[in-house]
Structure formats: structure tokens, C-alpha cells
Amino acid sequence: MPYPEEMVLPMRAEATKAGATELRTAEEVKASMAQSTGTALYFINSVCGCSASSARPGLGMSLKGDKRPDRVYTSFAGNDTAAVAEIRSRMPGVPPSSPSMALFKDGLLVAVLERHDIQGTSAEQMAQRLAGIYVEYC
User: Fold this and answer.
1) Does residue 3 have a pLDDT over 90?
2) Over residues 63-76, mean pLDDT
3) Are 128 and 59 in contact (CB under 8 A)?
4) CA atoms of 62 and 84, how far apart (whole Å)
5) CB 90 within 8 A of CB 30
6) Under 8 Å between Cβ of 59 and 100
7) What residues pair up with 45 in beta bridges, in sequence order?
8) Does residue 99 have a cis bond before it (omega within 30 degrees)?
9) Who contacts 106 (Cβ-Cβ below 8 Å, separation ≥6)?
10) Helix or strand run (H / E) with residue 108
11) Catalytic residue positions?
12) Number of Cβ within a 10 Å radius of residue 70
């Protein structure tokens, strides 16, 4: 059962305001994945408290740095189910987790932050962790 859209709208807006493009369908995810050159970060957004306290704000902070992915996308777990399933299908061996972030470089998965990597961190720590990933791969 999806969350009420009016409930998740501000959470969606926080990710898109940070610079992420929203992907709501599996077809949109497939089209984004077809652009395999360069780097793309996929943020699986959620209503979980660690999304609010560190994942979404940390994402926004990380995208203000000099190094950043070429493209940033977001889909909402529980609402954009087909889109999230398509993203997860591109992450073999990684269990479903929300929130989570996955960085692809030239079409290959190179880094993943799962819920257990996000939970208990501050927004600043999350931004630093993401910035380190960007320095390494972007």
C-alpha cells in the first residue's frame, strides 16, 4: 500500500530541490540507465527517520561540492514501486534497503550506501561520506 502522496510530497521535494531528477516508473529508470556514460547517483528515498535526519539533507549538502555525479536521480520506496524495483534489479547481491544510494560509473555499480550505512549518521557525516565517494569515482 503506497503512502499518501500528500504525505511524501515534501520528502520528494527535498530530494528534487537538492538537484535530483525524480523517476516514478520503471521505464524512466531504464531510460536513465541507458545513459551509461559518466556517473549517476540513484537515491531511494523513504519516510524513515534516517532519510529525514541524514540522507536527504546529506544528499543536498554533498551536491554543493566541486565533485559530484553527472546525474542524480530519486525514486520513493513504497510509492514508486516499479521504479525502485528496476533500480534494485541493477544492484545484484545488495538486499533491498531504504533509504539507500547507489552510484554507477559508466553503467557499472561502484558504490552503495544502504540503510545501515545511513542510520545513526548526521547529515554532515552523510555529506562527507558521499563527497568521499564522489572524489573516488566522479
Assistant:
1) no
2) 97
3) no
4) 22
5) no
6) no
7) 76
8) yes
9) 36, 37, 38
10) strand 108-113
11) 48, 50
12) 12
Q: How many domains does the chain have?
A: 1
Q: What is the mean pLDDT of residues 117-136?
A: 96
Cell of 121: 549518521
- Indicate the range of 1-15, 24-38, 85-99, 117-131 predicted with least confidence: 1-15
**For 82-117, what is each residue's pLDDT tens digit?**
999 999 999 999 999 999 999 999 999 999 999 999
> Side chain identity at 113, as an amino acid letter?
L
Give the chain's length. Answer: 138
SS3 readout for 80-106: CHHHHHHHHHCCCCCCCCCCEEEEEEC
Q: Cα(30)–Cα(89) distance, rounded to whole angstroms?
A: 11
CATH code at position 115: 3.40.30.10
Q: Which domain holds residue 125?
A: 5-137
CA 68 – CA 129 distance, rounded (Å)? 12
